[in-house]
Structures are given as C-alpha cells and as structure tokens.
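Researcher: Next sequence.
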Amino acid sequence: MKNFSDLSEREILAIGVSAEEEDARIYRAFAEDLAGRYPDSGKIFEEMAIEENNHRDRLLSMYQERFGEHLPPIRREDVKGFLKRRPIWLTKNLPLETIRKQAETMEFQAARFYAKAAEQATDVGVRRLLGELAIIEQGHEDLAHKLTQKTLTAGVRAKEDETARRMFVLQYVQPGLAGLMDGSVSTLAPLFAAAFATHNNWSTFLVGLAAAIGAGISMAFAEALSDDGSLTGRGAPVIRGGVCGLMTAIGGLGHAIPYLVPDSWPNAFWIATSIASVVVFFELWAIAFIRARFMDTPFLQAAFQVVIGGVLVLLAGIFIGGA
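Model: Next structure:
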C-alpha cells in the first residue's frame, strides 16, 4: 500500500474519480432501499448520487486536461489511511439511522481526502478543484446529519453530537476493543496450557505476563502502522497504538493475575484457576457488550461470536496442557 504523502497529482485525481463512482453507486443503493419506506430521504440520496457523478465528471475533465486519456489503476483501497467500510449497503431494509451514519462517515472521509489532497497539490487548477470539492463534501456531511430530522421525532432520538461520538469510536473504542479482544482471547490457550501442564501458579503467571506484554507490544505496533489517521480522522497513530496495546495487555493480564495466589496455600492451583475462569467469563461478556453498544452488532450475535470463540480457545489450552 502507498502512503498518501507519496501520491502524485495524477494518482490523487484517479483515486478521486474511482471514489466518486463508488460513492454514487452506494447512494443509489440507499435510495432504492429507502424508496418504499422513506421516499423523501430516498430522493435525497438519489440527488447525492447525481452530485457524486458530477464530481467525478469534474475530476475526469481535470485529469484529461492535465494527464491525457488513461487513468492509472489505483483505488483508495491501495492507499494507507483510508477507512475500510463495511458493505452494509448490500443489506436490504436497513434502519434509516444506520444509513444516515454510513453517509456521514462517507462524506466525512471524502471531505478529509480532498482537503489533504488540496494541501499536497502544486498545480493551481488541481488545488482549486480539490479545495472546492472539500467544501462541497463538508456540506454533504451536514446534509447527511440532518436526513432523519423529519422522520424521527425528538422523543425518539435524543439530541447528541453524532460526529463527536463517531470520532470517539474511531479513535478510542475501535482500537481499544480490538486490543481487548486480542488480549483476552489469544492469551487464553498459552495461559491455561501452562497452568494444567505445570500446576504451578508462579510459572503460569510468568507465562501469562509474557503473553500479555508480548501481545500488547505487537498490537500496538500493528495498530499504529496500519493508518496515519490523516484521512480517517482516527487520531494520532501513537495514541491509537497506545490504546490498543494497553487494552491488549489488560485483557491478557486479567486472567493471569489470579495465578499470583501463592503456591504454598492449600489447593492454590484450583483457587487461582477458579478465579481466572470467573475473570474470563466477565471479560468475554464485557467485550460482547462493548461490540453491541458501540459497533452496531446485535448483542446475541456479539455474545455468540466472542463467548463461544473464547470458550473454545480456553478448552484448547486446557486440553493441550493436560495432555
């Protein structure tokens, strides 16, 4: 993947063309989905699709004028820093609120892309066009934010700053949740394998401590290097990496700490293992709750994915350790 700062003006315009075409198709899918339920909102999305095509035409004209007829085969997925989107537009009968949030995210990212691209462009004409598109996309974000005002009453949806909430989720909840999931689940097998292989609390704690710290360092670097935050608004890589690494370590240490029970105690191994098992139970359900609360995942689905997966990893560790 290329860094955004390494893109040429030719590549920036080509990415803009492909991005506008994709966004137009997504908005048309939303318009079709809403046509029978919220026709007014459906018309707005159809108008937004037409507007995206107009942006594409302006970008194509500029590209043709500056660089000729052939577009380089580059998309935003080929550039580090773009926020990956869930293909929710492939699902029918989506709640209007879900569609509105997706539209906000799309327009927010588009506005940041054009603003950063305009700062990087040296050609006066290209810089002017990108700056104009950034302003237009910012207006679209405000429009998307207001889409449900006429269809949802004040009593149904409390007033809140959706943009601030989205940014909080992008900058802290997502990396923190990824770290907590990795730390809580990936360290289960080595910890409980060591526990049932040695029946020694101190040795088991050292294995858990090493696994938690190692996973925390690995996840911190992985998160920090995955996205510089300039386009997605996900914040500084160092902060995101720190949050992800810290939550990974916490997730791993949660069920390792009970093994600090001194080996000199009667039944020390079973006391520590029982406490660790209870901690694992609460960790997995906490992850499921966070996914349901912030990631728009149905709670039962989140619980099934996280709890069942965690239990399987736990049993694998016990089976290997006891072999």
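Model: The CA atoms of residues 1 and 78 lie 5 Å apart. Residues 155-161 have pLDDT under 50 and may be disordered.
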